[in-house]
Amino acid sequence: MQMPPTLHWLVGAAGRIGADPADSSDVALQKRVLVGLALIPAPAGIIWGIIYIAAGARLGGFIPAAYTFVALANTALFGWTRNVRFFRFSQLFLILVLPWFMMLSLGGFKNSSVVIVWSVLSPLV
């Protein structure tokens, strides 16, 4: 199955964020994976936030929506500075603390449907 031209262009553009011609193929791959990990969940964060807000949990909805904007700003900063260490640390930090803040905003471990389990993704990534 072939990608539509617009999607193909977007994937290619995302793959060039933070790219440096002097990067080895391993470093270039690491950068592309990190950018993907930051950009792929962005639309889900907006949808997740809208669902929580519609359900009456305004603070719970603000957190994933804010994550989306912070991740996009962080990715733009990475594209400008090419500082992969800071980008990697900040993205993993966001993945770690977002579920914790969600759990607190929804009223604790039981009321949040154990959303904090998502923070396990940080060390796995």
Keywords:
125 residues, mainly alpha, 71% helix
Concise structural overview:
The chain is 71% helix and 0% strand.
Structural class: mainly alpha
Largest sheet: none
Question: Beta-strand percentage?
Answer: under 5%
Helix content: over 70%
* Overall geometry: globular
Given as residue ranges, the uncertain stretches (5+ residues, pLDDT < 50) are none
Number of strands: 0
What are the secondary-structure elements, in order, as H or E? HHHHHH
How many helical stretches?
6
What's the mean pLDDT score? 81
Q: Could you state the oligomeric state of the chains shown? A: single chain
Folded structure, characterized:
It is a single chain. The protein is an all-alpha fold and 125 residues long. Helix content is 71%, strand content 0%. It is built from six helices and no strands.
SSE blueprint and pairings:
Layout: H1 5-15, H2 25-39, H3 42-54, H4 58-81, H5 84-105, H6 121-124
